[in-house]
Amino acid sequence: AGAFGLLPFAVVMLQQRVFYAMRDARTPTFINVAMVATKVSLVLAGSLLLHGRAVLIALTVSTSTSYLVGCLVGHQLLRRRFGELGFAPVLRTTGWIAAASAGGGVAGLAVVLAGAAVLGDGRVAALVELLVGGAVGSAVLVLLALRLPLPEVAQIAAAVRGRTGRDHGDDPARTAAGPDAGPDA
Questions:
Q1: Residue 65, C-beta contacts closer than 8 angstroms, at least 6 positions apart
Q2: Least buried of 36, 61, 110, 176, by fewest C-beta within 10 Å?
Q3: What is the pLDDT of residue 61?
């Protein structure tokens, strides 16, 4: 319920370090005040309006929402200080990776549900479902990400291919000497 706050949390931490690097400790305090006010308001509302397990979920959602608010406030304060930040490519990349992650999550969930139907309940069954579902979900995420129009993913894939020796297209000496040429060619 609160996973949506992971990325905003990371962004808030980065934003605050930008201000600290400029020897500005006041602006991160304003960001934290906005986050605390959001969290306290949501926790109070949740504790008054909800009961039982819903209160626990509200606590998680309130924390993630506070990070989201902090991220938005931090972004506005950075824009005020530096002008336009060129954030559109970051949002585009995040959206594509979120879509690939959702695909991997659906694949992993399908494996877990199928495993539960076949293996039943129990710790060993849950461990098998976790490991196989996680592996399948991760594989689907990677395969989808490799198909996306993202230069960041293409650079990582090229670096991995280069390290594993599967891609020599970027080495002009090797290409000129032929595919069987060694490193001294």
A1: 5, 38, 39, 42
A2: 176
A3: 94
**What is the DSSP code (8-state) at residue 4?**
G
Nearest one of 118, 115, 142 to 130, comparing CA atoms = 115
| Buried/exposed 29-50: b ≥16 CB within 10 Å, e otherwise | eebeebbeebbeebbeebeeee
Classify the C-alpha dihedral 162-165-169-175 as positive or negative. positive
C-alpha separations of 89 from 24, 38, 64, 77 in Å: 27, 28, 23, 19
**pLDDT tens digit sequence for 87-128:** 888 889 989 999 999 999 999 999 999 999 999 888 999 999
Q: Give the helix ranges, DSSP H, for the chain.
A: 6-21, 26-49, 53-82, 88-119, 123-147, 151-164, 172-177
**Residue 50 — left, alpha, or beta (φ > 0 → left; ψ -120 to 50 → alpha)?**
beta
pTM: predicted TM-score of the whole model, two decimal places: 0.65
The angle that helices 6-21 and 53-82 make with each other, rounded to 10 degrees, is 40
Distance CA 64, CA 54 (A): 15
CA distances from 111 to 53, 122, 142, 183 (A): 27, 16, 17, 44
